[in-house]
Amino acid sequence: MLFFIGAFPSIFVITERNEQVPPSGVPFLLTFIEIQMKNELLHFFVPEKGRRTKRQPISWLCCWAILLGIVCNACSDDDPVKKNPYLQVSTRALLKEVVEVKFNNIDGNTDITVDFGDGTVKEGKAANPITYAYTQSGDYTLHVTAGQYEVQKRIRIYNLLALTEAMKQFREPDNKKVWVMTHRAHTSDRTVPENSVSSVEDAIDSGAEVIECDTHVTSDGVVVVCHDQTINATTNGTGDITKMTYAELQKYNLKDRNGRVTDEKMPTLEEFLKAGRGRIYYNLDYSPRTATSQQVVDIVMKLDMMESVFFYCNSAQKAEEVLGITPKAHVYTWTGSHKPMMGLPGNYFVQYSYLTNGKSTPLGSSINDGMLATVNMLPASGSNVSEWTLNEGYLDELLQIYPMVCMIQTDLPDLLIPALQARGLR
């Protein structure tokens, strides 16, 4: 990346996740060229007394040519800057999330020392990442020494337990807590548009652990959050998301659940995730629908949110696809589609449904295979489950059918949570 200071460029390579160590020879060469350019520009535009103004600025042009060569080379596939040592580390993480610190493009035997900023110092070799899990939230500065290189990097630790750690509670024999997942970020407040940025705040305020949402992709490749593939039901416009550009989507406003038009726009997946980052978990339903798995995973990785997100997969094939991108993904499937997770380290949810078409999903083999049960308590054809009121009789029946339930998905988290508390399940 080039940053221009006045007319004279200097080169830095800095990204959110990687910090480039500048090559030792380049700054001196750039400084020399900059001085020469300043002198030549001065002579060219302000000629000395007695000097002809038509003098050709040969050395000035040479300086520009040299600089252009450096910049062009820096942008090529054989960029020497890319081959210099650089630090790779996340800038955000959750409590007890494993943070990896790695120096790339350096001799593997180089000694590495990492001061994590909380009193913890670890040493190792460049060949292997140095890992650490923070136990307290806050902003920290990492000080990393690798041979002759020294780099500092800021990292924010959110006050939310990483999913890998949080899911362990469901294996504890005395665990009594049932999590609540809010369907489309719904609560009993119908004035908040579903799957909107404001609905994220509403869901967090309700006390739910997880927000469920759906993803689609526009014709120009922007992943957005919406349940339907069309915008007909949720906005004051009409059209198929996959056939509209993101700019076209932004012409329309979201409607609340009473049908009134609001000031809110359909959010991108990135905006939706950022709105609750570090405060609540997300379940990306069908992971994805019209977006590709790679598109969705890339966004989650970019935001350093792999320990905050479930990838719901409606088939074993989709689960394999997501796990093929990253085996660290918290995949989450319909019951019977869980085979790709068997034998993997970690704990995984599978989903059942209460009273869909008048019936509840049989448990099948998922529980015997070590999966954790989540149950939908949602309106469906053939059932009287309401989106607007909580039927506690239905809740009691659900708990009887699925006594091992770990999480319930609902449109009414603010009503379900007190009902679970009254039953000793929070």
Automatic annotation (TrEMBL):
Gene3D superfamilies: Immunoglobulins (2.60.40.10), Phosphatidylinositol (PI) phosphodiesterase (3.20.20.190). Residues 178-420 form the GP-PDE domain. It comes from the Bacteria. One of its GO terms (cellular component) is plasma membrane. One of its GO terms (biological process) is phospholipid metabolic process. InterPro entries: GP_PDE_dom (IPR030395), Ig-like_fold (IPR013783), PKD_dom (IPR000601), PKD_dom_sf (IPR035986), PLC-like_Pdiesterase_TIM-brl (IPR017946). One of its GO terms (molecular function) is glycerophosphodiester phosphodiesterase activity. It holds the Pfam family GDPD. This is Glycerophosphodiester phosphodiesterase family protein.
